[in-house]
Structures are given as C-alpha cells and as structure tokens.
Amino acid sequence: MLPPAHDQFAENELPEDPSSADRVWISRWDGPWYMRPSLRLALILAVLVSIKLLAEVALEASQRSAGFKTLTPISISLQDRLSQNMMISLLAGLRGVVADFCWRDATDAWMEEDWARLRTDLNLATTLQPNSDTFWGMGGWQMAYNIATSKRNDHKEPNKALRLANERKWIDEGQRMMERGLVINPNSVYIMVQLAQLKMEKNKDPIGCAEAYEKASLMPGAAEYLTRLPGYSLMHSGKDKEALVYWRRLWARFPRHDEPLYQWRRILRDIKRLEDKLSVPQYERLQVDETKVR
Amino acid sequence: MIGFFLRIFAIARITLLEAMRQKVLNILVLFAVIAVSISVFQAQFSFEEQIKSLKDYSFGVMTVFGLFIALISTSYIIPSELENRTIYTILAKPVRRTEFLLGKYLGVVSLLALVTALMSVVFLITLFVQEQMIIADTTTQISKQQISQVDKDQLLDRAIKDIYSRTRTTQVYQSILLVYARLCIVASIAMLISTIASSAIFTVCTTFLIYVIGHMEGYAREVIMDPTERYGSFFKASQGVVSTLIPDMRQFVAIDEMSIGTEVSWVMTIGMLCYTVVYVVLAITMAATLFSEREL
C-alpha cells in the first residue's frame, strides 16, 4: 500500500472556531515567512540560476576555444550585430537549412544571370553560416569570374571603358568577399587557394598569388603539393629570382628531403635550373647530397 | 521513496499512451518521417555540400517537428486534465501535485525520445543511401580519368575515407542527442508556463517566443557584462531578466557546427547535456512550486 502523500501544510482547512480565524493561516502565502512559496521560489532561483549562468559562460568559452565561428559576430557594428542576431534567432534551429537554400538559389541566380539576386543570396548565406568556407570561396569566385566576365561582355553597355570598369569592380568585390571569409576563417586552405588563383588569373599578380599559396601551404591540414605551387606560379610568370628565393626558403624549412609526397627531386631540379639560368656563383649554390633526396 | 517513483512512473506511462493515441501527433510524426526521408532527393552538388545539406535539412526537420510535438503535447496536458476534470480524480488519490507534474513531464520526454529515435533511424538510413550514391558516383568519375590504376586506387581510397569521415562519425549521434536535449528544454518551458496559464494557445505562443528569444540570450549576457556605459541601466536590467530565466539556445549551435565539419568533443556534448538537465530541473522545480499553489 502506498503511503499517504498529502502535504499537511497544504490543507486549506477552515478553523472550527471562527473567532480564532485571525490566528490560523489557511494558505502558505499567509503563513510564517519561512513557509512561504515565494521564499522557496527565490531560493530555487538563486541556486539554480547561478548554476545555469555559470554553465552558460563555461560552455560558451569552450565553444569559442573549439573554434565555433558561428558565435563570432561577422560585424562589429552594433546595428549589424543586432540584425544578424535577430535573423539567426528568428530562424531558430533552421539556420543551416536557410543558408543551404540561399546557396542553392545563388546557383540558380547564376544560371539565370540574375546578379543582384546572386549577390543577396551569397551575403545571406555567409551571414547565416560564416564558418562555411565554401560559401566565401565559391561566392567570391562567382563574383570575380562569372559576374565579372558577364559585365565585360555586356552588350547593353556600348562603352568599352565602362564595361572594363564594371568587370574590375566585380573582381575587387569577389576578392573582398574572400578576404572577409579569411578574417572569419583564418585557417581555411580552401579560401586561401581560391584567393591565390584569383590574384594570378584576374589580377595578374604572381607575387601576391605566390604569397597566398605559401600562406595556404602553412595552414593546418594543407596538402603537400601546395608547398610547390608558389614556386611554380613565380617560375611560370618569369619571376625567376623570386622563385629561387622561395625554393631555397622551402628547402631550408625542412630538415629532411626524403618524403616522396613533396617531390624533393623535382624541386632540386628546378633550383639547379634556376641557379644556372640566373648564373648564381658556385659558392652560393645549394650544396646537397643527392642520394638523400627522394 | 519507491512509492514516489512508482506514482511518477504510472502517470508518465499513461501520459505517453495518451499522447501516442492522439491523431494530431501521429500525423506530425508521419510528416516528419516523410520529410526526413525525402532529403535524399536533393540537388546534386559536390559531395561535401550534399552531405552538409542532408544533415542541415534532416536536423532542421527533426527540430521543427520535434518542436511542434513538444509544444502541442506539453501545452495541452494541464488544460485538458482540468477541462475533463480528470485532474481532480488523480489528485484525490495519494498523489502529490509535484508527482503529477513530474509524471506528466516524464511522459512527454519519453514521447519526444520515441519520436526523435524514429526520425533518427530514418535519417541514418537516408544518410547511408546518400553515402552509397556518392561513393558510386565518385568511383565512376575516377575510373574515367586518364591516370594509372595505382593513382586511381589511391584517389578512390582517399575519396572514400573523406566521405566516411563525414558520414560515419560519432558527430551524427552527438547532433541527434543535442536535438533531443533542445526539445526537452522546450517541453520544460511549456510545462512551466502551463502551470500558470489558463489557455493552451497562450502556452504554445509564449513558449515559442521564449525559444526564439533564447537564441539571443548570449547577446543579452554580453550586454550585461559590458563594462562601458554604452547601454543604459534599464536596458541592462531587462537583459538581466532575459539572461536569468531564459535558456541559452545558442549553445545548440554545435549541431550546425558539426554538420559543417567542426570537431565537437564528447566532453562538450556531455557539458551541454548537463546544462539541459540544470535548466530542466530549474524549470520543473519552479513549475512544481507554482502548481502546488495554484487553485484548481
């Protein structure tokens, strides 16, 4: 048999003698202070809310240290932060779905050559998920390549100078988008490689391109072949001196040169070729035991 | 003490059975299952985008339908008990109001566990199908390349490992757990509000608003902790109330992060589950205190 579970203090019994009613309390709200539910509520709030707040601060700190960029406001201006927060709140739990939808719509806008819609979609997608490097890298690429080329070939604009100016404007816009993406995702190899390609192909800036490739190769998780791209970009653009400086720097960075994925033999061959081409004195040339190079 | 748990268990069991008999909830569950399963027929992008999109969509569906189920099933419990006058029969028995409330909450939480488990099974099957489709597609693409067989094998091996790292990872299960935790918090808020509200619609609307505002709770905390005079004292006080009572739903951003590929440790996941427990205890204790004083 279950024991009775009535709360004796909760009984709302009226006093038998009505004259003694002023001495009998019939609800806990009228009783002694230590029995009042308000005190119990205050105690619960004080204890549990403190634990809640401490847990929130600790969790947020751990999420920031784990690299949760979604917690990082994409803009420091208060108004922008408010609108970003407001939008994210209203999409409660559906942020990823809406960001993906914007991305898909951006692809449709690209097919339909609706550039204003494409730009809006890209901005929305990157605002909602600033840590998705595909949105920044591919978004910047869309602007600097697809929109820019379309503006250059815009038959509605008879003035060639204006067409070229419009093309340049979109290339710069695309570059800015990638650079903003890199501020928020500083270790994104993908965005950095996209930026390097943009600098080479659209800005004709092999030195800037090589710098971007070198930064990408130094990022965590970067593929081994990226270490060779700065050298090749400089060599193919006729910047032999700069290429040789880079190859030597790369050679000095590694104590051993026997890892096949880096293709050290190929690098050594290029160094020697450049040294010959630039007539580097014998005593300044790289001295290597070629049997240890793979 | 055993009697306490037995009474709670009995109420929870009845609540679960009653909820499972409700046609509205069954239809919602059916729609949720269909919505998760059709996510496999999405536009073709790169495989990273396909998997990310599938995860985002499935967790979004699980959250939205779970939210509806949590709101509807919790908000109507006390008003319907009062309307049918069954609460008087129950409370006339040796059952405390706290036990009644706890039993009802556990019933709702069990229902949410069942619904989440069902949607998760469908999601995992969909994810497996998508994974196999991507692998088949990648194999065809690599086999067409004009490179040696050794290079083809290496490329395929690397691609399959990359695909598995996104589909066969514990992060998927961590995300499911966090979706469930989020729903438990929503149910506890609805339970707290339904103890003081007289209408279920009011409970549904208020709980949903709190859920939305909860995504800005971190911002409210930033305002309070701001040492400058940028914000007025009234604004800070109002943000203080928000920060004190409303759960920080922004913590669950971990689900989004995991679908993108950010590494989220089990320690952090367990920390978030503990936070859920703390908030649920806070809400249910307050609800029990308020409900024990309510005039029925």
Can you put this structure into words, describing what you see?
Chain A has eleven helices and no strands. Chain A is mainly alpha-helical. In chain A, helix 6 packs antiparallel against helix 7. The longest helix of chain A has 29 residues. By secondary structure, chain B is an all-alpha fold. Helix content of chain B is 82%, strand content 0%. Chain B has 13 helices and no strands. Chains A and B meet through helix 1, helix 2 and helix 3 of A and helix 1, helix 3, helix 9, helix 10 and helix 11 of B.
Defining traits:
heterodimer; A: 294 residues; mainly alpha; 11 helices; flat; B: mainly alpha; 13 helices; 0% strand; globular
Question: Could you give a short description of this structure?
Answer:
By secondary structure, chain A is an all-alpha fold.
Number of E strands of chain B: 0
Oligomer: heterodimer
How many H/I helical runs of chain B? 13
Low-confidence stretches of chain B: none
What is the mean predicted local confidence, pLDDT of chain B?
Answer: 87
Helix-strand category of chain B: mainly alpha
Task: Measure the end-to-end span of chain B.
Answer: 26 Å
How many whole angstroms does the radius of gyration of chain A measure? 33 Å
Average pLDDT metric of chain A:
82
The radius of gyration computed from the alpha-carbon positions of chain B, rounded to a whole number of angstroms, is 23 Å
Please report the total strand number of chain A as a whole number.
Answer: 0
Q: What structural class results from the helix and strand content of chain A?
A: mainly alpha
**Largest sheet of chain B at a glance?**
none
Overall, the morphology of chain A is flat
Task: Report the helical percentage of chain B.
Answer: over 70%
Strand content of chain B: under 5%
Q: How much helicity do the residues of chain A have?
A: 55-70%
Largest sheet of chain A: none
